[in-house]
Amino acid sequence: MVLPNCRGVFSMLLSLWLLASTPVLAIWPAPSSISTGDSTLWIGPALSVTYNGRNLPWVYGYEPSGSKFSSSEIVKGGVARAMGNIVHNNFVPWMLYNRMELETTEPSLSKPKTYIVHLDITQSKTDKTFKPLAGEVDESYTLKVDKNGKAAITAVSSTGVLHALESFSQLFFQHSKGPFFYTKSAPVSITDKPEYDHRGILFDVSRSFFPMESILRTIDGLAYNKMNRIHIHATDSQSWPLEIPAMPELHEKGAYANGKTYSPGDLAKIQQYAINRGVEPIIEIDTPGHFGIAALSHPDIVAGWDSEPWTAYCAEPPCGQIRLNEPKVDPFLDKLMNDLLPRVSPYTSYFHTGGDEVNFNMYNLDPTVGTNDSAVIVPLLQKFIDKHHARVRKAGLVPMVWEEIPASYNVTVGKDVVIQSWLGDEAIAALTAQGHKVITSNYNYWYLDCGRGQWLNFAGDLVETYYPFPDWCSPYKNWRLVYSYDPRANLSAAQAKLVLGGELAGWSESIDDATIDDILWPRSSAAGEVLWSSPEGRTQIEAAPRLAEFRERMLARGIRAGTVHMPFCTQGLNATACQYIE
Question: pTM score, two decimals?
Answer without folding.
Answer: 0.95
